Amino acid sequence: MNRIEQLKPLSREHHLSLVLANKAIKTAKNEDVVAIEQLCQQIADDFEDRWEAHFAKEEQTLFTPFENNYQHDLKAEEAGLSLMLREQHDRMREMARDMQTGRVDQLAEFGQLLKEHTRLEERLFFPLVSELFTEEELNFIEH
User: Fold this and answer.
1) Which residues of 18-48 are buried (b: 16+ CB within 10 A; e: fewer)?
2) Model's pTM, two decimal places?
3) Over 80: is that where the pLDDT of 143 sits?
4) How far apart are CA 27 and CA 111, in angstroms?
């Protein structure tokens, strides 16, 4: 899928999130308790530096401008995208915190949510952003 230059860094990170999502789903499906515990610990350990930074960047540079400037002019299913994506971020944050405390039963759910979330951003939200955002708003994403 062609991506405007300003969104390419986020799209590259999305590739990594799909790899992680698929690994989480596969690991959970295999039911290897040690592998599940290790992957959950890895997700919890990496979350702050990798995924929280990614989520915060999207929330600040994409979701907020979208909600402030464009949401009211769109069809309901498009207008609600950023709010749904925010809720998914919050759910994944919660799941990562749970993993940090040893809860490993959500690995498959985490993987599925991450996969659905990433695809939603790539297939629906990013094209809207590309179409609607001003050059200034797009350039703000890169910083």
Assistant:
1) bebbebbbebbeeeeeeebeebbeebbeebe
2) 0.93
3) no
4) 10
